[in-house]
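Q: Can someone sanity-check these two? First one:
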Amino acid sequence: MTASSRPEHPRLRRSAGDRRAQLVQIGLELLPTTPVQELTIDEVARRAGISRSLLFHYFATKREYYTAVTRAAADLLWEHLLPAPGTPAEQQVTGMLDRYVGWVETFRDSHLAFVRGAGGGDPWVSEVYEETRGKLVELTLTTLDLPDDALRRQLVLAWFAFAEDLVGQWVAEPTMSRPDLLALLRDVLDRLVAR
């Protein structure tokens, strides 16, 4: 091969880990407008500049790919909800609620599909959903300095179900101001855990 016939920029090969991360990132970028169960493998492969069959080299099945995207989205939600270090305990729960409302506003359809997918029996969604809720329950109990017992866990889990439903409805049709919504959510939580 002569110097003039060589390509100017050789194609860089990605490692398997880098390619998997790229494909998951593409799924995350599509989530604001497309629930994970509706992501098309063809569209993800097209955006990655690879063939559909090559995507299945990195993820054996569609379900494996969807699970990876769902887990990555849940991790982002978790990181988004965590309070900044040094935030006073009294502000941590209210801040978490405010950030949660913002998350649902941004990712309403995807979040709704995540919650409904978990409730509808999709095992791959349910596992990620339960892990995420469990971490949020622990964070809430710790922040409120409550005992981590079966009763408090049940109450906080029930409150999360209420909050998910109310926030999802409120984003679709705001019937109160955002500060009123946050105050209501916090009031219900405080009343439940005071038992």
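And here is the second, same format, sequence then tokens:
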Amino acid sequence: MKAIRVLVGVAGVALMGVGASLLMDVGDLTGVLVWLGGAVVLHDALIAPLVLLVGLVLVRGGVRGPVRGALMAAGALTMVALPVLLRPGRPANSSVLPLDYSRNWLIALVAVTTVTALVLATRRFAHRRRPPS
């Protein structure tokens, strides 16, 4: 287990090095810094409080782990897909965004929902089959 952690840590440091080397190729760093600063502000001022509020409401409402996990996965998928989903029209170059991202995002959400439903059904079935103690 420790070897896996070390391997993942080394891979992470290597990827950080790749990112840093790519950042050195950027001519104007102010745009990158504004984008990064905006991402931090957006996360801290809007996304994190919203996720915490939704989590609090779900816990108070009695929603359990698999549903909360599915909502987190769906939220992460949506955040990744959001720039493409909100783009204005088709790109001039069809090779820039060659896939149907809206459809693929919906397929991913259906997959998350299906897996969550299967986990919940399996838990209910296993709970009913368990003899009373």
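A (reply): Looked at the second one. Helices lie at 2-24, 29-60, 65-85, 101-129. The two ends are 35 Å apart (CA to CA).
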